[in-house]
Each structure stands twice: as C-alpha cells, then as structure tokens.
Design a protein that fits this description.
Layout (H helix, E strand, L loop, with lengths): L2 E7 L5 H16 L4 E7 L11 H11 L1 H10 L3 H25 L4 E4 L2 H14 L4 E5 L17 E4 L2 H9 L7 E3 L8 H4 L3 H7 L8 E5 L8 H9 L6 E5 L4 H8 L7 E4 L5 H6 L3 E5 L2 H9 L4 E5 L6 H9 L3 E3 L3 H12 L2 H14 L4 H14 L3
Parallel strand pairs: 1-2, 1-3, 3-4, 4-5, 5-6, 7-8, 7-10, 8-9, 10-11, 11-12
Helix pairs in contact: 1-16, 2-3, 4-5, 9-14, 12-15
C-alpha cells in the first residue's frame, strides 16, 4: 500500500498554494506511484480567528497594512509566540484532530507557519504515527513561527534562512537548505517566449516589462502601472491584475503612451516571464524566485512589512533586483536601465546565479526520507 503525504497551505496570497503544488509535482515526478499525495487548503482546520485569514488578508494588506506590520512584529517575539502556539493548540485541538482524520498521512508538509506550530504538538499528544516537515517560504526574514523546535524537518530556501532557524534553536540536523520550491517544469515553460510575444501582438523591437501584484493584484499596482503607461518609455508593458477585476477595468480605461496588455488572473505566468525582459513585482517570494529562474532583472515596487523586507534585502544585496517604493522611482529606474543595457545584462546574470531550479526536488527528497522511517 502506498504511503500518504498531505501538503498543507493557507491561501493568503498565492505563494503558499503554489509552493505546495510545486512540491506535490516534484514528489510525483521523482517517486511515481510511491505515494498518495493530497494538496490541502488547511484554513478551515485552523481555529478562530486564523480560519478567517483568506478573507481578511487582501483587505488588510491593501488598506490597513499597519495592522499586518504590527501583528507580524508583535507575534515575532518568543513570549508572544509561545502564547500564539498555546492558543492554536488549545482552541484548535478538535479541528486539527479532524484534519488528521480527514487526511490521514505518514508525512504532513506545512507550507504555512501556522501549521508548523499546530500540528507537531497535536500529533505528539495523540501519538499519531506521522512526521511533520515545514517549508519556509520567506527568503531571509521569515517569522519566528516558521521555526518550531518539534518539527521533524525544517526546509529553508537560503543560507540566511538557515542561520535564522539555528538562531531560533532548531538542531542543525533538522534544518536542510533546499531552495524555494517552484514548479519543476518552470524553465521548460519559459522557453516559448518568442511565440507568446507573437500571440500577444507584442513588437520585436521594444523590450517587454511584465508587472504583477500577485494573485490578488495587491499593493500599489494601479498607481505604478499608470505612471509607466504615461511615461512614454521605449518599452512594452504587460500588467497582470490577478483577481482584482476593478484594477483591470481601471487600467483598460486609462490612455497609455506605450504599447500595453492588461490581463486578469492567468495560469501562464512562466510563459509571460519567458516573453519578458524585465519583471516589475511586489516582493512576494514565489514570484521573485520564478523571476530569478527566468533570468530577469527585478524591480520591486512594494513589500509587505516584516515578511517581505528580507526578500528585498536578499535580491538587492546579490545584485538581482532593486527596490523602488514610489511610482516615480519605478519610472526613473526603468529609464536608467533602458539607457544602460550593460547594467541590465549584469542583473540578468545575477538573477540566474540565484536561481534554484531543483529546489522542489530537494524538498521532495527530504519528504521521501522522512516517509521512509515512518512505520
């Protein structure tokens, strides 16, 4: 009988879900027919108020970001984290137990820090025969909740994240540097850029800038896109608005002085990156890592306080990206890049050096190792 793996995410932004799906695909490719793998949105199994996160997250990030920043930093202290964990276990015991019944597994893979705090103590007290691995989805400034000492494995994307895990007291043998998982077939999908340019009616004589605000079109996408559209820069712009239909309608109704394509939610982001020369993005981990794999210079126009600050530092310190927090700064940086092709070439090389195309397989290997010791 095949062993079972349950990969858990919370759909706050698209990164946690995409990470879970990338890991599942890698397991399927690396270990065909060895495991029954379920990718599970675990939000309904969290206690109140955490089970409301998917509804509140876009509104808080877009309109009350100071609340998110306050919560991130307040709960990032050891004493507060202990209280958070106690609350999760006390109020979430019955729901977590139901999760184990609904999705019995030999290995649970957490792709959100709340599950890394909730599952290990529940599994231990129930003497449930399973292991728990956690995939850290922040490049360099992850929340302390990622680093639960009773995890069986903590899989980190960068050396900076590994040092952070050790500083939070995890034993070195539990902390494994894997890279940030992206879809295993991503690089192959990025190779069809020329055909996609033609299908979108893009010109061959102008560079293409791809702009995204994540799956929910969050942050300052609108004002930044409008500033680029009014700039008369010698480039073409693709704006992916995600599920933000109001933003899409606004941009489609706005006159542009440059060639423009406005898209809603897409499932061909790798192909769009392959068709582009520059990525303009908020500082979400998964989008940045996909951009690195595509070898794109990355212009970050927004960062969610706390969790994404380290992403900005990581890319800028390694020469693969720049941070421009105002629409005018974005336009000025684009103009500087277009006037200096050598700088763009250096940044493309830096992006490719940071890319981790095998990260999902590295994670799958560690999960396979954990599953092998479960009787």
């Amino acid at each position: 009988m095949a062993k079972r793996i349950a990969i858990l995410y919370e759909d706050t932004g698209g990164g946690h879900r995409s990470t879970a799906q990338a890991v599942a695909q890698a397991i399927s490719l690396m270990c065909p027919n060895r495991y029954e793998t379920a990718v599970v949105n675990g939000t309904p199994y969290l206690p109140f108020p955490f089970d409301q996160g998917e509804r509140s997250y876009p509104a808080v990030v877009n309109r009350a970001r100071f609340i998110h920043a306050w919560l991130f930093h307040a709960l990032n202290r050891p004493a507060m984290l202990r209280l958070l964990r106690a609350w999760l276990v006390w109020t979430g015991w019955s729901r977590a137990s139901r999760l184990l019944r609904d999705y019995p597994a030999d290995v649970y893979v957490s792709c959100h820090p709340l599950f890394s705090q909730l599952l290990p103590p529940v599994i231990c007290r129930l003497q449930y025969p399973a292991r728990v691995a956690h995939v850290v989805t922040d490049l360099a400034s992850g929340h302390a909740a990622h680093f639960a000492a009773d995890l069986d494995a903590c899989l980190v994307p960068t050396e900076q994240a590994r040092r952070q895990a050790l500083q939070h007291g995890l034993p070195p043998d539990k902390v494994i540097l894997t890279g940030q998982p992206v879809w295993p077939n991503l690089r192959e999908r990025m190779s069809g850029g020329a055909a996609l340019r033609a299908s979108l009616g893009l010109r061959d004589d102008l560079p293409v800038a791809l702009m995204t605000g994540g799956g929910d079109g969050m942050g300052a996408v609108g004002p930044t896109a409008c500033a680029i559209m009014r700039s008369a820069l010698k480039l073409q712009l693709i704006v992916v608005c995600g599920r933000n239909e109001a933003l899409r309608a606004e941009l489609e109704a706005t006159p542009a002085r440059i060639p423009l394509r406005v898209l809603g939610f897409v499932d061909n982001m790798p192909e769009l990156m392959g068709a582009s020369d520059i990525l303009i993005s908020k500082s979400g981990t998964l989008t940045l890592c996909e951009g690195l794999l595509a070898g794109l210079p990355i212009l970050m126009y927004d960062a969610i306080p706390g969790q994404e600050d380290g992403n900005v530092d990581y890319l800028t310190q390694h020469g693969a990206g720049v941070f421009c927090p105002t629409p005018r700064a974005v336009v000025d940086q684009l103009r500087a890049w277009l006037d200096d092709p050598a700088q763009l070439a250096r940044m493309r090389e830096a992006s490719l050096r940071l890319a981790q195309p095998d990260a999902a397989f590295n994670v799958a290997r560690e999960i396979d190792r954990l599953a092998a010791v479960v009787v």
